[in-house]
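Possible regression after last week's pipeline update?

I re-ran a chain I had predicted before the update to compare outputs. Posting the input and the new output here so someone can diff against the archived version. Not blocking, just want to make sure nothing changed silently.
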Amino acid sequence: MTYTSRLMRVLDERGYIHQATNAEALDALAAERIVPGYIGFDPTAPSLHVGSLVQIMMLRRLQQAGHKPIVVMGGGTGKVGDPSFKDEARSMMTDDTIAANVASIRRVFARLLTFGDGPTDAVMVDNAEWLDRLEYIPFLRDIGQHFSVNRMLGFDSVKLRLDREQSLSFLEFNYMILQAYDFRELSRRYDCRLQMGGSDQWGNIVNGIELTRRVDGREVFGLTTPLLTTADGAKMGKSMNGAVWLNEDMLPAYDFWQYWRNCDDRDIGRFLRLFTDLPLEEIRTLETLDGARINEAKIRLANEVTALCRGADAAAAAEATAQATFAGGGVGADLPVLAVSEQGLSIVDALLGIGFAQSKGEARRLIAGGGARLDDQPVTDAAMHISAPGSDLRISAGKKRHGILRAE
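New output (post-update):
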């Protein structure tokens, strides 16, 4: 359909829209007034990873279009854990762990959203503020009556676990009710009219829409993004070294930059639309580059995303390090560093310590496959001992992962 509001046009043109409830009415509402919209983030770790970045960028687009983003930290729902498309229950977290994770996650939003007291300024709230105060019997009576167990069992997020005969605790089963309650509460507290999320959240979002309509007689809206995978089918947010974290203390800026620099050629246009603020006309030009020039588009992607999430200085330093490492044959200043004591260490421990292998077995397989190098010389002996180097020594795993061994 042809949208009239700036919000829906931008979301459509950049590829964010997968499903929407009453898209025509949402478009009309966004064309005539400020629409507060929210996305929830459960604090299951000290940082979100790039799989969550598309959701954060949706909030950014919401604000850029003149509307109000609401960031909901799941201090309450995090105590339950979303069972959506999970094979098993998440480990239970203590209140202290949840609080620490929430505090850590908050930092990434400050770069991408403008917070304040204005009508379109972003706000951050914690759903523990209302969920922790719920009384069980009143909640069952007032809210539980609006949910059909028959229908809840039919949701894909629940059905998947049951079909696989995997345990689904009663605690997890309640998650969708709590998320629905969040929407109703945000509608009352902040005039929130829109919930956004990934396609795996569709059932939870619809529950909140229906609860708000039944209890308050108010129409609210839902919008989801497509399932985000790379061109080769891998889940967004994972790399050879593990999760690609948004927080600097969880993943160095250089590694973050390299993740985008090394993306599949087929993903460039889509990623530029979703994860950068570049004009669409410029993106169309960049995605037509081919041959060796495709690397120009990849570097532009890496610089733009890193600048948004880590700052312009971090992006510039990462590019300079890549240039020194790959084009100059040296060791860039932003590469990961592993300190080597006077006793030295084995090549296996070096690969493990710098993060190029997750286990000693994986390190040995890397060596056996010819993927490990020291100062560009292949390592063939897994029993090799490395003495404390007199100057920086470059250690590599494959063609794209490099680090520095440095004497303590």
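Follow-up from reviewer: compared with the archived run. Residues 95-112 form the longest helix (18 residues). Marking as no regression found.
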